[in-house]
Specification:
9 helices, 56% helix, mainly alpha, Lysozyme, 214 residues, two-stranded parallel sheet
């Protein structure tokens, strides 16, 4: 099918509409994430119940420590990560809240905080409102079907920082358990590319930038 050539007026209207959409955020190519997404799969009732319980726990992301050395180690980590993340998140309070929540949710789910930071870098490049071409959302690019399976079905909540990080860490823990601790396979499952090397290798590479000796 052939369309008539655009006139100058048509072009001006189209460009003007694109500018309005870009300004409003309705059309934002920078907001797209490049990673894939988890694949929906049936969950046995016991697994669904356990995951739902982990998601619904409303404890706030406030680190608690049993001794002074643990607290000091956390503060050293926070300072080091803050410097590395400054270009992505220039505001100190925003950066602190994000790092505190990543640390809390990683520890809560029993996953390596360095791995989570690497995964976030690959998935969203630390963009809160990133959306992939398959619909995955937020920092950890969580697929909307998880809110239906484990929550109230409100996919909009995946743009809330703590909700997104909690879903992401719990899902990653689930995949690690499914793969009996095999990081390569678990990361592939998280991305929807199980058994393929590019995604796990990208996360392993990004992870190195967030390692911390303490």
């Amino acid at each position: 099918m052939k369309f008539p050539p655009e006139t100058g007026a048509h072009i001006n209207r189209r460009v003007g509409l694109q500018r309005v959409l870009l300004a409003s955020g309705a059309l934002s190519f920078a907001g797209w994430a490049q990673a894939g997404g988890q694949l929906e799969e049936p969950l046995v009732d016991s697994v669904r119940t356990a995951l739902s319980s982990a998601i619904q726990n409303s404890a706030p992301p406030i680190p608690e420590f049993t001794d002074t050395e643990s607290r000091l180690k956390y503060l050293r980590w926070l300072g080091a990560m803050s410097e590395r993340l400054k270009k992505k998140k220039p505001d100190w309070e925003t950066r602190k809240e994000f790092l505190q929540t990543v640390w809390y949710e990683s520890k809560r789910a029993g996953v390596d905080v360095t791995l989570v930071m690497g995964l976030i870098q690959v998935e969203s490049n630390f963009r809160k409102f990133a959306v992939s071409r398959v619909g995955a959302r937020g920092y950890m690019q969580v697929m909307p079907f998880w809110t239906r399976v484990l929550g109230d079905g409100d996919a909009g909540k995946l743009f809330h920082m703590q909700t997104n990080l909690r879903f992401g860490c719990v899902i990653l823990r689930h995949y690690l358990d499914r793969e009996r601790g095999d990081l390569f396979l678990a990361l592939g499952r998280y991305n929807g590319s199980r058994g393929k090397a590019p995604y796990p290798n990208a996360v392993f590479g990004a992870k190195r930038a967030w390692e911390f000796a303490g």
